[in-house]
Amino acid sequence: MTQPKRIAVTGAAGQICYSMLYRIAAGEIYGPNQPVRLQLLEITPALGVLEAVKMELDDCAFPLLDSVVCTDDAKVALEGVDAALFVGAKPRGPGMERSDLIADNGKIFSILGKTLNEVGSSDVKVCVVGNPANTNAYILKANAPAINPRNITALTRLDHNRALTQLAHKTGSRIDQIKKMIIWGNHSTTQVPDITFATVDGKDAPSLVDESWAMNDFIPTVAKRGAAVIDARGSSSAASAANAVIDHMASWEKGTDAGDWVSMAVPSDGSYGIEEGLIYSVPVTCSNGDYTIISDLKPTDAMREKMKASEKELLDEKNTVADLI
Ligand code: NAX
After folding, report:
1. If you take atom 35 of ligand 1, which residue's CA is the nearest one?
2. Residue 134: CB within 6 Å of ligand 1?
3. Residue 125 has pLDDT above 80, yes or no
4. 8-19 b/e (C-beta count within 10 Å ≥ 16 → b)
5. CA distance 265 to 133
6. Mean pLDDT over residues 141-166, rounded?
7. Residues catalogued as catalytic
8. Banded model confidence at residue 111, pLDDT cuts 50, 70, 90
9. What is the mean pLDDT of the chain?
């Protein structure tokens, strides 16, 4: 019998998790031959709702679901896990800026980082989703020195997927015909969706669209898509965020397709002049359960300027949470 993979998920009674947990239990991260054990964390007042989530997981009778733990004790949730998905945080509501959330959510991630340091395995794969995701991941990393820092990542795959769809619609192509999309920087409105190196059915994407569309339409549409969803439904993206977490973890575990890459926010290795250690979204390839930063691209001057502006925002966020790192 294959040992189950243990996955901690925080904020497990929330909206994103209601779209995500059932797909993980169905085998969408590790594949059809790998049992999973879910270690679900919530704040105490949400444990009742979490129990209902567990009841529904049970009622799905997933063959790959080994067991489900529901707890309000982070030590129990994070103990010995192979992967930790940090979704739990206060979400952004109508009219709120991400900066409003930094102070509140930063404290949560400092405590969780210390707990992960104490009870987590050093090679646990971490994906931070709760906003501000990059800076929360930075705080977590700073508070968890025993964990392999390379494995502390944040989610920009939703932005990557949004960018794929915008380019597919513009060029009348299918998603699977588009390769080498990039999201640079922060998961915020300063992010830099970049089609410079993308191809559509083997053709260079920049040759298929106007430069003014790429700069003045595509970039803001992707960067502000989260706010557009909030305006339309009154709360932040849930199903698409859940889908992106599964994509992020599945690519990391199972590898990226030949001739393609994905965007992940990972600790910067100094490539592209970005401060080392900042959690910055870059293109990566994945194989054998690890990722490699694509570090030899030559972004255009216009993109470099935007990449530096996104770095500046991350440096400002880092200063705001200086007492937590
Ligand atoms: P919900 O409010 O539906 O769920 C959040 C859950 O987290 C709640 O059940 C709450 O009780 C729990 N929680 C709060 N503090 C906790 C703690 N200390 N420990 C454990 N659980 C805790 O929000 P949801 O829509 O699921 O969104 C979750 C987070 O994802 C938000 O921060 C949201 O802004 C962020 N997002 C990130 C995205 C990304 O691409 N990186 C996109 C979607 C989303 O906006």
Report:
1. 130
2. no
3. yes
4. bbbbbbbbbbbb
5. 9
6. 98
7. 187
8. very high
9. 96
